[in-house]
Amino acid sequence: MSANFEAKKVVVEEITNKIKASKSVVLVDYKNLTVAEVSELRNKCRQAKCEYKVYKNTLVRKAFNDLGHNDFDADLNGPTAVAFGLDETSAAKLMVEAAKTYDGKIVVKSAFVDNAYVDKNGAKALASMPSREELVAKMLGSMQAPVANFAGVLNNLLSGIVRVLNGIAQKQS
Question: Starting at the edge strand that comes first in sequence, how are the strands of the sheet with 24-29 ordered?
């Protein structure tokens, strides 16, 4: 076997491992981006704990096919970059935001979330969803509200009793 074939096998294995380790994978068309814009986008991805990488389409297709997902074959044409996210929404949010920021130089093609293919519209909808952490914070806030209200009612009740007792004590003196 040639050294080139072995090198490609290593890259396919790398892509496969990244797909398995990621909660979401977003495929984008990145034509017309300047080098400075790509560097800026990579930095934004790093800050959000995502990875933005350009691979050959055939190698990404092979990695998805090895994982049993053939839905991406149509999307892996033309210039394609891959964003790997550690949560379900961050990579999609970054790429949709980049599409707005760079005036259509980036076009979201599809995504891979929860071991399933998500089309372009689904990826855009995914970007509008709150992250897991935001959802947990909202849920905890809504669970905490009744307890806080109850504590406030008890506090008002106790302070009312103290005022009544204080008034009785002042009358007797």
Answer: 50-54, 81-85, 24-29, 107-113, 116-118
Positive/negative CA dihedral, 105, 19, 139, 46: negative
Alpha-carbon distance of 78 to 70, in angstroms, equals 17
At 7, the amino acid letter reads A
Q: Is 56 helix (H, G, I), strand (E, B) or coil?
A: coil
- What is the Cα–Cα distance from 141 to 72, expressed in whole angstroms? 39
Contact 137, 125 (CB under 8 A): no
Query: Helix, strand, or coil here: 75?
Result: coil
Model pTM score: 0.72
Q: Retrieve residue 71's tokens.
A: 């839905």
Please give the Cα distance from 144 to 138 (Å, whole number). Answer: 10
Q: How many helices (H) and strands (E) does the chain have?
A: 6, 5
What are the structure tokens assigned to 162, written together? 């103290």
At 132, the pLDDT band (50, 70, 90 cuts) reads: low
Longest alpha-carbon distance in the chain: 104
Q: Cα 172 vs. chain centroid, distance in angstroms? A: 67
CB 82 within 8 A of CB 55: yes
Residue 102: what pLDDT? Answer: 86
The answer to whether 27 and 110 are in contact (CB under 8 A) is yes
